[in-house]
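*** Fold description ***
***
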Amino acid sequence: MLTLFYACYFLVIMEGHSKLLFLLASNGEAMALYEQSLRSLTNSGTTDFMVFKYSNWQDISKDLEEWEDCTAIDEPTYIKLYANLCKKLRKRIS
């Protein structure tokens, strides 16, 4: 898990701290789907991912501990994944 922490920290350093950044964190299956395509992940039934919007590394470092993988994403992708996750979770609790 320490490797994931440093990999995500490196993403933050590379992107800089002066703007809002977006991150997809997930388990291995969800990341494999995302790497195929955004549509593969959104059309799947998996909810084993989370998207984060942040401007300060300290805001999310604790939240990343439960995830296997992470990658930087852009804002439109963040919006699509956030909406997709909300729809999937709403179906579970309805």
